[in-house]
Amino acid sequence: MVSRADISILIAGAGPVGLTLALELARRGIKPRIVTQTDGPVSEIESRALGVNARTLELLEPSGIAGQIRAQALPIEGLQLTSQGTPLLTIHTNKFRGQAPALSILPQGATERLLLAQLRTFEVEPEWHTTVNTVQGGAEDPEVTLIRKDDSGETVKPTILVGADGAHSVVRKSCGFTFPGEALENDFFLADYAYGAPVDVSYARVDFTNPGVLGCIPVRANLLRYISTLPDFEDRIVHPHDPVEQTWRSEFNVSFRHVDAMSIGRVYLAGDAAHIHSPIGARGMNLGIEDACWLAWLISEGRESEYSALRLPAVRSVLRQTRMLTALATLERPLALTLRERLLPLMAYLPFAEHRLVSGIAGMDTPHPPWIARTH
C-alpha cells in the first residue's frame, strides 16, 4: 500500500454509500471528512433500500460489518412469480453457493446505523446538517463551500472530492458530469404494513396483474412491503392477517441514467450520484456500496485514476439487467402478456437460466474485488 498521508478527502453524503466509503478508507488508515445535510441516519420507519446481496456482505467482511448485518437480516429463500394468483415460476435463491445468502433483507436505516457505529470506532463522525452549497473551480481544482445549520460557512479545497450525495447530486451538477438516460412512464407505489402476528418471510412474491404488477417483500418477522405500478394496489392486497398499521407509504418515478464518466479530474461519483435505475433486482444500494469499496481500495493504492474505467462496465451491465427485468414486469400489450405467461414456466426446466438470475441477484455478475481472496 502506498502512503496517502498527503491527501485530504471530502465525501458529500452520509447514506450507505458515503458511510461505506468513509469506513473503507478509515480502516486503511486514511481518515476522510464526510458531510451531509441530514441530521442522522435515515428513519427506521422509512425502510427505503432493503436488499443486501452476497457481494455486499463479501465486500463488508473485512470491515467487520458483514456478520452484524447477517445477525439482523432476513435471508430470502426465493422469489415466487404468479399471474393473477396462478403460479408461473419460483426462483430459488437459496441454491446460491456462497459464504452468505444471495439476498438478505435489512431496512436501510439499520444498515446505516451499523456502518456508522463501525465508522465511529475509527474516530470518524459525519458532519450532520452540513450542506455542499457550491463547488467552484471545476473538477480539476474543486473548491467547496460548505454551509451549516447555523448558517456559518467554510470553503475547503480537498485533494479528492467524492459525490455520494444521491440522485440530485450537487457535486455531479457542479463539476461537468453528464447524466444521460430516460424516465419510465410508469409510476411506482409502495406501502409497508405491520401485523400483530408473524408472517411468512421466506419468499418475496410478485404477482402480474395483467397489466401491472404487485410485489410483496418481507421486511421484518411481522412487517411486509407491497410495491406496485397500480394506484389502487392497496385494494388488491391479500393480507396474511389484519394489519395493525401502515408504517410507511410512498410513490416514486423510475429513471435509468448513468454518468458517462465516474470521475473527472479530482472529483469522483458513487452510488445514486452516478447511476439510478429501477428497484427491481435490489441492486441500487448494493451497486453503490460496491462503488465505494472499489474507490477506497484504489485511493489507498494510489490508483484512483483507474476508477471510472473499472466501474463503468459493471454499472452498464447492472442497468441493462434491471432495465430488462423492469420491462418484463411492466408489460401491457395482450400479446406480450400471453408470451410472458407461457415462457416464464419454461425457465424451471433451464437450470442455467435460474443460475444466471440468482448470480445477478447475489451481485456476483460483476468483477471480483481483487483485494479479497476468492472463497467460491
3D architecture notes:
- It is a single chain.
- By secondary structure, this protein is α+β, with helices and mostly antiparallel strands.
- It has a single domain (9-361), classed as FAD/NAD(P)-binding domain (3-Layer(bba) Sandwich), CATH 3.50.50.
- It contains 10 helices and 19 strands.
- It has helices at residues 16-26, 54-60, 66-72, 108-120, 170-174, 233-236, 284-300, 307-329, 334-343, 351-361; strands at 9-12, 33-35, 51-53, 74-75, 78-83, 86-91, 103-105, 130-136, 143-148, 153-156, 160-163, 181-195, 203-208, 213-220, 223-228, 243-258, 263-264, 267-269, 275-276.
- The strands form 4 sheets. The chain has an 8-stranded mixed β-sheet with strand order 6-5-13-14-15-12-16-19. The chain has a 5-stranded mixed β-sheet with strand order 2-1-11-18-17.
- Helix 1 (16-26) runs parallel beside helix 4, helix 2 packs across helix 3 (66-72) and helix 7 packs antiparallel against helix 8 (307-329).
- The longest helix is centred in the C-terminal third of the chain and has 23 residues, at 307-329.
- The radius of gyration is 21 Å and the shape is globular.
- The mean pLDDT is 94.
